[in-house]
What we know:
This protein has about 190 residues and is mainly beta.
Amino acid sequence: MQIRSAKILLLGILCVGSFSVHAKDEELGNYAPISSREGFYAGLSTGKIFFTGSDRQLYTDAWVVGLKAGYDLFQYFGFELQLKYSAHDTTLLAPSATTPTAFTALQLIGAGKVAYPVLRRLKLGITAGGGFFYSTPSMQSIQSQARAMGYGSLDIEYFMRIKGMSIGLDPSIALVQNLQSAIIQTTGFVRYTF
């Protein structure tokens, strides 16, 4: 019984000690408030990519992974570059003259973003921009092809207690040249502000 009491006492001391360390770090500014989160950042994202409309009958859903880098000018506005990669199958059993049985897609996106801090560590925002959707082999002919695309996303970002780190969700829609319907991407991300 004494060993159990000693363990509980030790656990209590550790908890109190960790709370005081966190409070001291907060007081010293090691956990920067959201208003000071400005400057260069880099991040990783992953999630699902979905074709919609008549394109959904031909192209399958897939995982998408991406890199992002940007600069927040101040807490309400910034710029961002994204690079996303995905690999897709089609519903065809054999390639046709116009469509392969599988392809990979690379998206290069440049965008502006606006955000509003709704809580001390939580931002809601909108990202809009454009770029290129490159598929190999091409989704609609046997040769590789780059297409122009428009891009928009809704962003929810939570700034963690670790200085510079944040996590979030950024579901998006992309309109790609020569596709019948929009592409939907549901992704989450982690980022670090330098």
